[in-house]
Amino acid sequence: MRPPAPRRQASCTEGCVALRLMNALRRTTTPDHLTPLAYAYRLIARRVCSERELQAKLEARGFTAGAVARVVSRLKDQRYVDDAWLARSLASRLREKGYGGVRVRAKLVQRGIAPALVEEVVRESAPESHELETARRLLARRFPQGLGERRQAGRAFRFLVTRGFSPDLAGSLVSAGRAGSQDRENAQDDDRERDKG
Questions:
Q1: CATH 1.10.10.10 matches 32-81
Q2: In the structure, what pLDDT confidence band is assigned to residue 115 with cuts at 50, 70 and 90?
Q3: How far apart are CA 73 and CA 70, in angstroms?
Q4: Alpha-carbon distance 71 to 106, whole Å?
Q5: Which of 1, 27, 38, 97 fits 34 for a cystine, CB–CB 3.0-4.6 Å?
Q6: In whole angstroms, what is the distance from residue 173 CA to residue 100 CA?
Q7: CA atoms 95, 99, 105, 109: torsion sign
Q8: Mean pLDDT computed over every residue of the chain
Q9: Which of 17-26, 124-133, 162-171 has maximum average pLDDT?
Q10: Per-domain residue ranges for the chain?
Q11: Phi, psi of 147 (to 5 degrees)
Q12: Residue 129: HSE in the Cβ half-sphere, 13 Å Cα cutoff
């Protein structure tokens, strides 16, 4: 039986050549050497951008205003940049997570969606009755024991407002929740009194 052949180690010149090739490739594919269109494709491949976000990122990279306008126009024609789709998708996702209209509106504005489109999407995404029902479900899940104490009611109010529900809606739900908790406590006290007597 023959012993196994010793492994061949790469000579210094082979390793250096490979390293030089890798560095050359890295240099040619860095964002510094990309055209505005290629850089925009890279951006939207990572994350869906609104028109305004894409413009800001391209301008921050140092591309001229004319080049940025042409690239954004081309991507809109190709439907890679579609603010209406992005707004509806984002609003839907946020509503599914239990966020209210105020929070949805703020997120859409933060992403650079046009104000008229923001208002349209917020109205479409959930009517008032749906928002009221969502807030009730959230309160019931977060505060299953009710809102008897004033401190608990304050927490519930802040919770709803933080989730993006209007202060008016949050106030009315918390008031109704406190009244319901007090009615339950009174009924329990009456039952205890009857049991004693």
A1: yes
A2: very high
A3: 5
A4: 27
A5: 38
A6: 14
A7: negative
A8: 81
A9: 162-171
A10: 32-81, 82-126, 127-197
A11: -120, 50
A12: 0
